[in-house]
Amino acid sequence: MLLEYLRLGLHQIAAHKLRSFLTVLSIAIGAASIVAMTSLAQSGLATLTRGIEDVGGTRFIDIMTDAPKKAVAKGSNYARRLTRGDRDALAAAVPNLENIVGSIKFYNAHVAFGDHPDAITTVLATEPGYFRAYKMDVAMGRALTDADVTGRRRVVVIGDALARKVFGTIAPVGRELRFRGNRFEVVGVLGPNRKGDSLNLGYAWDEVAVIPLSAPGVGSDLEEISLTVRHTDDGELAVRVANAVLLHRHNGVDNFQIFDFGGLLKNFYLAFAVMQAVVALIASIALLIGGVGVMNIMLVSVSERMREIGLRKALGASRAMIHRQFLLESLVLSLVGASAGVAAGLGLTRLGSTLIKGLAPAWIETFSPAAVVVALVASCGIGVFFGWYPATRAAEAEPIACLRHE
Asked: Were 123 and a residue from 5, 8, 106, 228 both cysteine, which residue would form a disulfide, CB within 3.0 to 4.6 Å?
């Protein structure tokens, strides 16, 4: 019997193609909005999460020099940059601290080997803890050590792409690389990765050259101080303490910026929740419009099929049977719209991800199964809700009145 009702429902959709198309279009738009916008939002969140995990995770806090936003008039009475004293003060004051390192970057630096032409890259002067903080893997040789820093050794660890660019097929470990007139012995090569692409850290990790912070020509100032706390929940307190310490040491001038990666991710989760609410609002409006369309087409269908209803009742069909028939037809309309909308939503997700990947190769394409389920269930609910009244009207119609209906 259920299959017969389904056959009748599909027959009615096929018999009135344009009317049925316009009815299911709004439901399809609502379902597509749920699937596409939710999936793209989850893709963005997954990309950001992987980027944060790649460069230290949610326990990571980064402090960088910045233009002062307050007390600018104090002029020369504050430190222009972060200092090694700032790093030491933070190491002593910040609670639950697992790791802290200072660093400075030399962008567009010229490095060379032998008679080869210079390669332009980023030279990073830092400490051994930087490798742990940013989860940098060494594929060949070794990383920097505390002895390299205390001994002011002229050693360097280079990215795999830089190794190929500068040394070609020559084994890089044990060779020398020139930077600012100083010769550095290559002691390690980083493993291939695209770390940081999703966060746009300003340089390519596979082309970086890492030297000790104490190396000649580096200077005493710092550009960045990186902290790792023991637990994600320690981040908020660490940020407050670090801000207070640096303000005190810089005479109240906030010429620095603090990035709490754990807090950043929380903010994006909040933004994702807001986006989901907006998607739900847009989809609900479209689904409600579609529901009204379903009710209208079912009322028209009931009016056109009065003689059929009367004949079925005269042959013994009960009110419940008539009610189920028209309710199932309404459900079929909604389900067709929902299915088309889900397919369109998945297609839009694929198209959007393809376009975004052209600009951001690190983009992670994900589909939301939950959004597909919600779209189908909500659309079916709309079909049942708005189809109930037309189905009830058909079920309660008197057989004789139906047979006399023109």
From this structure: 106
pLDDT tens track for 364-395: 888 888 889 988 888 888 888 888 888 888 77
Residues 6+ apart with CB under 8 A from 9: 325, 328, 329, 331, 332, 333
Closest CA to 224 of 61, 351, 361: 61
Q: What angle do CA 254, 257, 261 make, to 5 degrees?
A: 145
Distance CA 157, CA 57 (A): 23
Q: Report the distance separating Cα 157 and Cα 169, nearest Å.
A: 17
- Quickly tell me which residue has 């919600």 as its tokens: 374
CB atoms within 10 A of CB 282: 15
Q: Report CA-CA distances (Å) from 354 to 173, 274, 349.
A: 39, 25, 8
pLDDT digits (tens, 9 = 90+) for 157-181: 998 888 888 888 888 898 888 888 8
Q: Which two tokens stand for residue 368?
A: 């939301």
Counts of helices then strands in the chain (DSSP H, E): 12, 12
Buried b (16+ CB within 10 A) or exposed e, 201-213: bebbbbbbbbbbb
pLDDT for the residue 400: 67
- Quick one: pLDDT band at residue 342, thresholds 50, 70, 90? very high
**Residue for token pair 């999703």:** 198
Backbone angles phi, psi at 368, to 5 degrees: -100, 100
Q: In the block, which residue shows the tokens 């079920």?
A: 395
Give the C-alpha separation, 184 to 173, whole Å: 11
Q: How many CB atoms lie within 10 A of CB 260?
A: 23
Strand 176-179 to 182-190 pairing:
antiparallel
What's the CA gap between 167 and 162, in Å, rounded?
Answer: 8
pLDDT confidence of residue 155: 93
**Residues 131, 396: Cα–Cα separation, whole Å:** 76
Q: Is the confidence at residue 327, as pLDDT, over 70?
A: yes
